[in-house]
Amino acid sequence: MATKVITTPFPYTFNGEDFDYWSSLFEVWLKVFDLWKIVDEGFDELEDEVGLSEAHQRSLKANRKKDIDACNQINIAIEKAVYEKISKAKNAKEEWQILKKTYKGDDKVKKVRLQSLRLEFEKLQMKENESIDEFFERVTLAINQIATNG
């Protein structure tokens, strides 16, 4: 199986703002290079490889390579201040979990954010000088924000 070589860096550098937007684009980017699964699920790292079959050794080596590639993609797609938060992570999954917890928040933060977005949605009214298309755009944006955070 041929390995895909990533020659172009991810075009959007994450600076700590708008994580939902950046992460959705970045997830697709990683999927293109078959790296998302290793970031999302991780893999079982073994300290002792004695007694492993040749197939298992190849699989472990391939997972380690994917993990390094995924870490590299994450690290070059974030600013230095963001990198400092994940620099001690041991693998790509851990880096991603730290980013999610830091910039998207835990369940409590998500719940508060979602309540706020729902309240904004319920208060939406068409402005006097607003076209239907403009109002529809605001409604769609609100729905998308709720879906992203829900």
Automatic annotation (TrEMBL):
It comes from Acer yangbiense. It holds the Pfam family Retrotran_gag_2. This is DUF4219 domain-containing protein.
